[in-house]
Amino acid sequence: MKSIIVCKSVSHGNTRKVADVIGEVLGARVVDPSEIDVGELSAYDCVGFGSGVRNMDFYRELREFAASLPEGQRAKAFVFNTSGFPEPPFRRYQRNFVSLLENKGFEVVDTFSCYGYDTFLPLKIVGGVRKGRPNTEDLEAARGFAEGLRDPDRLSPLM
Asked: Tell me: the pLDDT tens digits for 98-123?
């Protein structure tokens, strides 16, 4: 199974830490959306999409990258994110991103989320929230998530 992870990590590198752990388990290269052409994804059986959260949504660069993908994608996918706060019930940004990928033809097999250090204003004034996150337990959870993705029934190429 040939995998790649397209990850947008900005403020503190939280999401990149998670992406690197998942990439290590899957043997996947981790790239920023600006480092890969949308046409290159067709060479992969599985594509991971990861993002930090800003203003209760995935980073614009990753959303725009996904929106620019042609329809008819034939790969499996997974989605993950880091955030200072849990996803609110009135703003399902992860579900919205999954729907975008499914509309492009991806089969999204799983999602993962964990806390990340957040210094978005006005939190910066008080030193931010979730300092030290993702921590060892978060990264071990990400490792477990990735190991679950290696199940051949979940990520075998689509027929």
From this structure: 999 999 999 999 999 998 887 776 66
Q: Name the β-bridge partners of 153.
A: none
Q: How far apart are CA 125 and CA 96, in angstroms?
A: 31
**Pick from 152, 37, 25, 14: which is nearest to 6 by CA?**
37
Containing domain of residue 27, as a range?
3-155
Q: Residue ranges of the alpha helices (H) in 56-125?
A: 60-68, 93-103
Alpha carbons 138 and 30: distance in angstroms, whole number: 19
Q: Which alpha helices (DSSP H) does the chain contain, by range?
A: 14-26, 60-68, 93-103, 136-149, 152-155
Radius of gyration over alpha carbons of the chain, in Å? 15
Supply the CATH number for residue 102's domain.
3.40.50.360
Q: Which pTM value belongs to this model?
A: 0.90
